[in-house]
Amino acid sequence: LYIHDNSLEKIEKHYFHGLSSLSLLLISSNGIKLIENGAFEVLNQLTFLDLSYSYLKINNSNLLGFLPNLNTIIFIFSHLESIESLIFNSFPNLMNLIVQKNRIKTLENLEGLDNLFSLNIIDNRIKILKENTFLKTNKLYQLQITKNKLHSIEKNAFKGLELSINYLYLDQNK
Asked: Does the pTM of the predicted model rise above 0.85?
């Protein structure tokens, strides 16, 4: 379902009723400001979700609900300040997470990303990679932390990635 480039500022709980077999949902470039709790709960077959170009304030850990088949989620220029609040246990099969061009300052508590293959966190505000940041992401193959404000990487920040990481991008950090 493509609902791209409209003026949809709010996603209400009933919007997707009757679409339980939907696998792809692109609702980018709408300027979404509010997602009602449970709005996505009927989309248990969803594999791809794009919420780019939104004005999201995710402060409810269950905002997107439990999406057991979600493989890819994209938040490009969505004004996110944190990804920890997404509660990744709600997406047990998430493989690709793109949170490019947001306002994210820290990367912590990435538990629940056991199957993550690719993490794109380009052009955010991350300053420090703390110890054990990626400990629970031991299948991560590609990590992009380009164009942040990274000035410090603590010892063992990449612990857990020894056998999986093939591409690590840390360029253009100032």
From this structure: yes
